[in-house]
């Protein structure tokens, strides 16, 4: 559901305070004033438990001759946790700046007049918070990964997260623990709590979250406080300071920053990765430019044992974690760990342009250690890229949204995939594929071909030898060059013949044979010439030495025997090739788009020619009008 006009109007009324701030505050600083004042005005209507002492109300304090003193007294009446929230906005400094600029009374009175803030429900207030936070983020020039999750995406995530549990019995008082390790302003946690309460009315929902941004943490804390929701929200970076060490959760969901580097967290992350399975990042670390797979590992480390009910989690990721990184890379190792443990239940491709700060493609990953029996060893792929409606008005980069009807349709497609999984003969839906997890694995093999050389003394040989550092610093350099110059134009088909000839050349020059090792290496490098018809070079063990320039790599499915592949696909074309099994690596990638590729045949040539002729005629007509 999109925000209604009431929410938009309320948010616009609040943001209009920026008109008062213009000139004394920079645009990116507006949120540091507007957000805490919004919270204060909202909290003012709540009374206990957020205020622990009697004292002036907001409107009274705002109307005092010296509002700075009155408002500080007003703030002291709040409970410690509320004061901590306001401290995260550095609200005391903002009051001082407003007072010094002569703006405090006007700003405070403008908020005192916003009676609608007191009347909004907690759910409606969430829309207002979302709008304000988005505006603040845009004016602060946040990076593409630091966006806020649209409510319809949250609704879809929660639907898919809880879909298998809709009919699952949940006893009175049973505790359902939910975690969002990158909770932002708490939208996902609030939506999950509402949905779980609807399908399990007798259960008790306990929310946990962690957020690195102080302002977002403050908004989340205030929202949970006003809702009366049992919640534990930590301030800090989940990657470097786990706020819930040793705890497990039945449900987890997150939209972590993607495309954002984790360089600042590197020392802590790599230290924990060295702990292996005992740490949160034992499966490996991704490239430094994108830490989203670290958040996913963090969540998987907090799954409850399957015997204790297990866990389900949903996470928003961009396309990179699907395929970035070849066999042996950190990303591939993490994918392998997930798929070989059979935790990946499904991936849903979302429409682009859903987020206000980025238009890139995004995907929902659903993971669980209590997958339905029919899905064991299999993964659902669901293409929902066309399930969108056009926004009446763009919100930054957000030009599309997913309607409630489409959310239900996607949810039904996802749950309907169980029928496909249970019956191998069941036809695929056009937007759904159910594939074996092993299908995403492959072996990266190294195909070698022998190094073939002839040996010759040419002008290039002499130039290369003269430029070699090992030779230029050697006392016998001049004698060696002179000896070889006399054999210019000579070609030897094999190394033994070349060795005998070179020894015969260097002996009369008074040079030792064998030559010093560095010089000998430089000499052979200079006289060796790659030649497809040349002699095969062999090592001490008699085996052919590989030619690095002819080395090739092939990715073959896990179910394919490498030697059978070599015999079938390689040896008929290059009979002397072999596989260096010591270089073989196992990799995993999920080429999502390949499963939903639709071939579109090119237009008939006659039709293209007709269009070109028509275009030429139109151009000629236009040129005639210009020159005529």
Plain-language structure description:
Helix 1 crosses helix 10 and helix 3 (30-44) runs parallel beside helix 13 (214-227). By secondary structure, this protein is of the alpha/beta class. The chain is built from 26 helices and 19 strands. The strands form four sheets. It has a nine-stranded mixed β-sheet, with helices on both faces. Strands 12, 17, 18 and 19 form a four-stranded antiparallel β-sheet that branches. Strands 13, 14, 15 and 16 form a four-stranded antiparallel β-sheet that branches. 39% of the residues are buried. The two termini are 58 Å apart. The longest helix is centred in the C-terminal third of the chain and has 23 residues, at 605-627.
How big a fraction of the residues is strand? 15-25%
Distance between the termini: 58 Å
Q: Strand order, main sheet: write it out.
A: 3-2-1-4-5-7-6-8-11
Q: Largest sheet, if any?
A: 9 strands, mixed
Mean pLDDT: 89
Given helix and strand content, the structural type is: alpha/beta
Sequence stretches where pLDDT stays below 50 over 5 or more residues = 1-5
Shape: elongated
Radius of gyration: 34 Å
**Assigned CATH class of the largest domain:** Alpha Beta
Give the name of the CATH architecture of the largest domain.
3-Layer(aba) Sandwich
CATH fold type of the largest domain? Rossmann fold
What's the domain count? 3
The CATH H-level superfamily of the largest domain is Vaccinia Virus protein VP39
Helix content: 40-55%
Our count of helices gives 26
E-strand count = 19
């Amino acid at each position: 559901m999109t925000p209604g006009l009431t929410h938009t109007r309320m948010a616009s009324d609040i943001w209009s305070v920026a008109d008062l701030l213009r000139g004394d505050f920079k645009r990116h600083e507006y949120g540091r004033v507007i957000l805490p004042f919004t919270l204060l005005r909202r909290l003012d209507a709540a009374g206990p438990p957020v205020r622990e002492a009697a004292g002036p109300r907001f409107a009274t304090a705002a109307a005092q001759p010296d509002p700075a003193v009155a408002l500080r007294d007003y703030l002291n009446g709040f409970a410690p946790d509320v004061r901590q929230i306001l401290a995260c906005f550095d609200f005391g400094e903002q009051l001082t700046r407003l007072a010094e600029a002569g703006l405090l009374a006007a700003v405070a009175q403008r908020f005192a007049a916003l009676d609608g803030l007191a009347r909004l429900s907690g759910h409606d207030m969430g829309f207002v918070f979302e709008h304000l936070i988005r505006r603040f983020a845009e004016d602060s020039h946040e990076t593409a990964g630091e966006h806020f999750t649209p409510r319809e995406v949250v609704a879809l995530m929660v639907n898919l997260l809880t879909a298998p549990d809709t009919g699952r019995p949940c006893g009175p008082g049973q505790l359902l623990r939910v975690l969002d390790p990158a909770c932002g302003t708490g939208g996902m946690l609030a939506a999950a709590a509402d949905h779980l309460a609807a399908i399990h009315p007798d259960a008790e929902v306990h929310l946990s979250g962690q957020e690195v941004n102080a302002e977002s943490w403050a908004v989340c804390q205030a929202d949970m406080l006003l809702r009366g929701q049992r919640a534990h929200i930590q301030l800090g970076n989940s990657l470097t300071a786990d706020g819930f060490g040793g705890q497990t959760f039945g449900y987890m969901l997150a939209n972590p920053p993607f495309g954002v580097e984790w360089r600042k967290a590197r020392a802590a992350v790599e230290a924990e990765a060295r702990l292996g399975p005992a740490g949160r990042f034992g499966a490996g670390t991704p490239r430094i430019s994108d830490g989203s797979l670290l958040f996913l590992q963090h969540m998987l480390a907090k799954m409850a044992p399957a015997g204790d009910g297990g866990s389900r989690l949903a996470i928003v990721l961009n396309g990179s974690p699907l395929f970035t990184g070849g066999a042996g890379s950190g990303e591939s190792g993490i994918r392998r760990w997930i798929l070989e443990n059979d935790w990946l239940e499904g991936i849903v491709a979302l429409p682009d342009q859903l987020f206000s700060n980025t238009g890139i493609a995004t995907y929902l990953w659903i993971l669980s250690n209590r997958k339905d029996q029919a899905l064991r060893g299999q993964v659902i792929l669901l293409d929902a890229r066309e399930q969108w409606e056009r926004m009446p008005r763009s919100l930054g980069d957000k030009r599309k949204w997913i309607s409630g009807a489409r959310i239900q349709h996607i949810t039904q497609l996802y749950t309907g995939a169980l029928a496909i999984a249970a019956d191998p003969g069941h036809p695929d839906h056009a937007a759904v594929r159910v594939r074996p997890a092993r299908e995403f694995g492959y072996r990266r093999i190294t195909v070698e071909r022998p190094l073939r050389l002839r040996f010759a003394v040419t002008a290039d040989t002499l130039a290369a030898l003269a430029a070699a550092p090992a030779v230029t610093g050697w006392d016998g350099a001049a004698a060696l060059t002179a000896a070889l110059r006399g054999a210019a134009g000579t070609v030897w088909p094999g190394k033994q013949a070349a060795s005998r000839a070179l020894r015969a050349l260097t002996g009369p020059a008074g040079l030792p044979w064998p030559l010093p090792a560095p010089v000998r290496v430089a000499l052979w490098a200079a006289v060796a010439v790659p030649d497809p018809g040349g002699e095969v070079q062999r090592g001490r063990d008699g085996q052919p030495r590989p030619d690095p320039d002819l080395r090739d790599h092939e990715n073959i499915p896990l179910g394919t025997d490498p030697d059978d592949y070599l015999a079938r696909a390689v040896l008929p074309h290059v009979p002397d090739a072999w596989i260096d099994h010591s270089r073989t690596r196992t990799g995993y990638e999920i080429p999502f788009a390949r499963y939903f590729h639709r071939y579109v045949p090119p237009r008939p040539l006659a039709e293209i020619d007709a269009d070109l002729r028509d275009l030429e005629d139109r151009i000629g007509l236009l040129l005639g009008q210009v020159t005529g």
